[in-house]
Amino acid sequence: MTPERRRIVIVGGGTAGWMTAAAFARFLLPGSDVALIESDEIGTVGVGEATIPAIRVFNEAIGIDEAEFLAATGGTYKLGIAFENWGREGDHYLHAFGLVGRGLSLLPFHQYWCRAEAEGLAGPLGHYVLNTVAAEANRFGHVTRAPDSALPPLPYAFHFDAGLYAAFLRRFAEARGVVRHEGMIAGTERHEETGDIAAVRLRDGRRIEGDLFVDCSGFRGLLIEQELKAGYEDWSHWLPCDTAIAVPCASVSPLTPYTRSTARKAGWQWRIPLQHRIGNGHVFCSRHISEDEACATLLANLDGEVLAEPRTIRFQTGKRRRAFIRNVVAVGLSSGFIEPLESTSIHLIQTAVNRILDLLPSGPVSDTARAEYNRRTDFEMSRLRDFVILHYHANQREGLPFWDEVRSMAVPETLQRKLDLFRDSGFIQRDGDELFDVPGWAQVMIGQNLRPARLHPIASQVSRDSLAKFVQSLESAYARDAARLPGHADYLSRFAPMRTNEKAA
User: Fold this and answer.
1) pLDDT score for 2
2) Distance between CA 16 and CA 270 in Å, rounded?
3) Which segments of 265-320 are extended strands (E)?
4) How far is CA 5 from CA 147, 184, 243, 361, 403, in A?
5) Would the CA dihedral through 83, 84, 87, 92 be positive or negative?
6) Which of 80, 138, 176, 289 yields a CA-CA distance of 20 to 30 A from 268?
7) Of 300, 393, 301, nearest to 341 (Cα)?
């Protein structure tokens, strides 16, 4: 028996709407009718231009060619995030993708590194992370490892223009059957019996019916909050930044294969290098710095000529109490917001779409599926929240009211447990399928000057000479391997140079 066609309506465009539409076009059509409603009158936030390696899985799954995508979006490669001044003023470390060193016996590498550092045998942790070594040399290339190679992979993500990415995905989705409706939503209609959304009405009188509605309307939460009153779990007591100012500037050399995050007086500044410009922004807490001062700080710390007027974005960190209610599921900013310190905004869109596809059988959505969707969303966002809080809490920027406040605050129990375990013995526990694994937690904790009180007894069993040779061999191998890579800019210019017509868009 052939199931009835499902009518899916996506409310809102931007990165969230068009990523959703592209995925549905690839995996649900022709079994569903997919419509997307957006208005050219409504601008998009567009600050999520840095990603993590999982974006490659999304692009590959829907059939996007990497070179074509980079050329269309002004994209560059990303090996990690450089954090400046986050521990103390003058501190520097990278949270790079990929492995940290190489484990011995039962322990991850950072346990041996902690002993080697204590005995004066090791350099900075980044010397033993291939992505860090390559990033700081501004090198990148697609690496194919021999089956017997002891060297780690070189995982990567992208920086890209979020507006151009949305336009790229729009072309992809419309070519595969997604129907776009231009217009502003004026109201909604509900089923009398079920309370589900039956249709949305546009200002011009059009009525668009649906069986499933995906709310990609941004912070407004047009359906999930304004209509269905999902409620919001406020995390601003842990993540007090509430404003961002964004501004592009002209590109400069070198073209760095990493995002940069620099701690400022009451927040941090991002730097995202694209082929045609650099994306910059200042995220800050308005209780500790005025908007005028924050904007002046941003403009005084740009690498190139300003290309547009600074744009202010206000936000509240947290999440909807339920992301899936009745026949409405929130994707993107409508589901919640964790500031983009670790480039997870677009990743959260991707995982939301994955969950919808996982839990969307033929026929009406069940209460069981909704409950599982909300459970998985809550877990994912709370663990990402903890990882971002870590950066603020583990600071030594004494004498600055904002930084003193976040250093002394009580943190979620789930984060406190991780901190206590690491400070005790260097142990890092990954909870379930949380996004960031041991290498990520280790790089941030160590990068911000946390150290265990005791060395692990297994790490102490290696002789001093063997330990010295081990860390030196890794450092030398990674330096040699990175030196073989081409320069990032040169590689991009050959593999995926940005199209001239896209630069002008």
Assistant:
1) 47
2) 21
3) 267-273, 278-284, 311-314, 318-320
4) 47, 26, 43, 12, 54
5) positive
6) 138
7) 393
pLDDT digits (tens, 9 = 90+) for 334-365: 999 999 999 999 999 999 999 999 998 777 88
Cis peptide before 30 (omega within 30 of 0): yes
Q: What is the pLDDT of residues 43-69, one digit of tens each?
A: 665 555 899 999 999 999 999 999 999
pTM of the model: 0.95
Residues 6+ apart with CB under 8 A from 132: 79, 80, 94, 96, 126
Write down all domains in the chain, each with its CATH number in brackets.
6-76+160-233+320-382 (3.50.50.60), 243-314 (no CATH)
- Amino acid identity of 380? E
Pick the range with the lowest mean pLDDT from 47-56, 78-87, 226-235.
47-56
Among 4, 9, 498, CA closest to 212: 9
Dihedral in degrees, nearest 10, Cα atoms 479, 485, 487, 491 = -160
| pLDDT at residue 1, as a whole number | 37
Q: Are strands 318-320 and 232-234 parallel, antiparallel or unpaired?
A: antiparallel
Rounded CA-CA distance 12/220 in Å is 11
Q: What pLDDT is attached to residue 148?
A: 67
**3-state SS assignment for residue 404:** helix
Cis check: omega of the bond before 254, within 30 degrees of 0:
yes
Residues β-bridged to residue 324:
329
Q: Which two tokens stand for residue 85?
A: 């001044």
pLDDT of residue 43: 64
Quote the pLDDT of residue 501. 62
Just list the catalytic residues.
78
Q: Indicate the burial class of 430 (C-beta count within 10 angstroms; 0-12, 13-18, 19 or more).
A: middle
Q: Is pLDDT above 50 for 224?
A: yes
What interhelical angle do 438-447 and 109-118 show, nearest 10? 20
Which stretches of 216-365 are assigned E, i.e. beta strand? 232-234, 243-249, 259-264, 267-273, 278-284, 311-314, 318-320, 324-325, 328-330, 336-337
SS (H, E, C) 4-54: CCEEEEEECCHHHHHHHHHHHHHHCCCCEEEEEEECCCCCCCCCCCECCCH
Other C-beta atoms closer than 10 Å to the C-beta of 237 total 10
Measured CA angle at 152 (ends 480, 495), to 5 deg: 75
Rounded distance, CA 182 to CA 179, Å?
10
**503 has a pLDDT exceeding 80:** no
**pLDDT score at 88:** 97
Does residue 408 register a pLDDT over 50? Answer: yes
Beta carbons within 8 Å of 287's beta carbon, 6+ residues apart: 240
Largest alpha-carbon pair distance within the chain?
Answer: 79
